[in-house]
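Pasting as-is:
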Amino acid sequence: MDNLNKLNNSTIQANIDVKGYVFKVLSYWKLFFVTIVIALIVAKFMNDYKTKVYNLNTVISVKEENNPLFSTGTNIAFNWGGASDAVETIKVVLTSRTHNEKVVRKLNFFINYLKEGRYRLEDVYGYTPFVVDLDTSKPQLYGQLIQVEITGEDTYNLSFDLKESNSNALITYDSNTTSIHNFSSPLFSKEYKIGEQINTEFLNFSLQKTKKFTVGEKFYIQFVSFDSTVGSNRSISVAGIANGASMLSLSKGGPNKNRIVDYLNATVVILDEDKQEQKILYAKKTKDYIELLFTQLEDSLQRIEKELGVFKEKNNIYNLSEEGSLVFNETITIEQDKKNILEFNDYLNNLRSYLLSHDTYGENIPVPALIAVQDGKISGEITTLIQLSSLREKLRGSVTDNHPQVIKLSNDINISKTNLLENISTLKVVNQNKINKLSAELSTYKGKLKKLPKTEQGLLKFEKNYQISEANYNYLKQKSYEAGSAIAANVSDVKIIDTAKDLGNGPVYPIPSFNYLVGLMLGVVFPLFYIITKEVLDNKIHTAEDIQNNYAIPVLGVVGKNHGNNNLAVFDKPKSSVSESFRALRSNIQFLFKNTDADKSKTLVLTSSVSGEGKTMISINMATVFALSGKKTVLIGLDLRKPKIYDDFDLTNDIGVVNHLINQKTLDEIIINTKIPNLDLILSGPIPPNPSELLLNETADKMIKELQKRYDYVIIDTPPVGLVSDALELFKYGDAIIYVIRQDYSEKGMMRMIDDKYKNKEVTNISYVLNDFSIKNKYGYGYGYGYGYGYGYGYGKYGNGYHENEDNKGFFSRISSLFKKK
């Protein structure tokens, strides 16, 4: 076959040899098996070692609710609806530092409950048979593991060792401050009873029993930083629910499901309390102020009533005349109306001054305690202003003023403030007109009042003061009732749809199935990466197809591995597969000799790229197969630099070609008869200082021509052509040239020089022989069949009886045989 013309097509076919690559990958099944097993073991370890993280959630509704019992027309009226964009505001509130500080304090989450686990101390909050009843006003040992060992049904031993942590700090949670304490001893151990108060300079708490004690159980408690606990719990996730803009899902992750459940439920409760507190803040302040004035007015009313009684008795006048009663009734109504308007104007002035002088609005905002608010918008705007201001200040504790929610709240506050100021200005103008009108009416009645007797005028004055005070007293009672009812009947904007609950949820991390899948994938990927890298970096010749696809010189055949003790494979084991491969080569090489006369001597030159490729072994056995076929054969060792042939024939290298070339010995004196019939041998002899010059002289030429006359086959073992040029000079004697390549040893670039010479027709009648070949799935499927490899090699039971001398024992069989021999 002409490889030179088909080289490019063969290369393309080799590049798409999918089946060949599949066999290569499958040949590494042991590597895949080991890496997959290791990866699965690592995955199992990671599943056990990694801290399990659970995720639970609760669902709430955030909707503006109005109390149907009240309206904005009520004197103490409130804007029951929350701030605009309340849902987005609540999202920020739930993750704010201030809100989470309240939750942490409520739950005492700065106390860790721990127990020794397989790999670490595990969080056992909610699983311990006790809880810590902490006195937060007193100092506690900070950061130290405190062991609690159950010693009886109601007793436990408390101990710690400061040497383990080298810490002597104390923390007081009420003030959130730390201090240093000098311990007299680093060790502490004492037995206590359940419920007994521990009062020391560094520990102040008691344990309350929640479950039955198991004697010998050990737990640990630890008091940690309040601020860091708050920070670690601010990671609560708040998200809106699709198709329900007013509903929020609160979720939280962690290693302890009891902690997650308690925290989620507590954060919703505190949110609900805060929202209600914001909604009734104005009402509470009004009620408190009313209660204060109510007490003062009650005392004033009693005093006026007493003075009225004294005046009547002293002046012996108990009732007004008909005219006096008429003037009194008309005057009292007008003065009461004027007094209410004047008080409301004073309130409006105070409110306006407060709005203009403050940036935040809360508990100090003026309240209209003694007057009826003429416009319900005033109360509504005040309530809205307080809510917005309170929300903004809470958000400022966790975000900057540039946060979108803070900016929006500030804009809403400015709008509400502007509306209030405009209403105040309008009401003051209206009220002034009313005051002028009432003042004119009062002037008329005062003229009538002067016509009455002096004693009746005095009685009328006392009656008027008493009536006004009594009216105010009754008004305050009514307002106090309204404010109390508004507070008690407050409707929350936050409703719990689903409380957080442990329903046996599995961990969200690590996910065992995912880790096993990743382990399996890595167990496959790593070997593949290794195989691909090895293939990319591999520059060795592995198959005959590697030679065919890369070089123009044809492949004559392949020779299997020689497991014998020497290179006389054909002679020592004539029925082995290696022997068969050389017989196949003997048949194939006849095609190279086709231009040679049948009765003429034939010369075969053998070379290789470098030392170690098996050139000498091929030379010896090729000579042997020719000799055993009845042909008179001579093997010449012309590798003068590194001779090897003598050792396989148990000879010394004292006399050989070198002795003849320097005219020390005759040709007959250097020819050695071997134990192999028809085979003579000429060794190389002592290593000369100038091997190239010896091979190029006339004596060498005469020697080879003389041997060609005497023998049917002349086999020449030459030096490696890749190292020295001697072999190239000897090619001229060869009727056929064998270039030996060794599987898994020869590199692909080594044959480039000889292949180029073949392409340029500088060298002809040359073929490659692949030596030391074995069928390996990773290099393909069945390569070598038809290349003189021999039938049956590697084909198991189908080769039985054909290769009796074959040593096909496996590794374990060889080990077993070795022990049997011993």
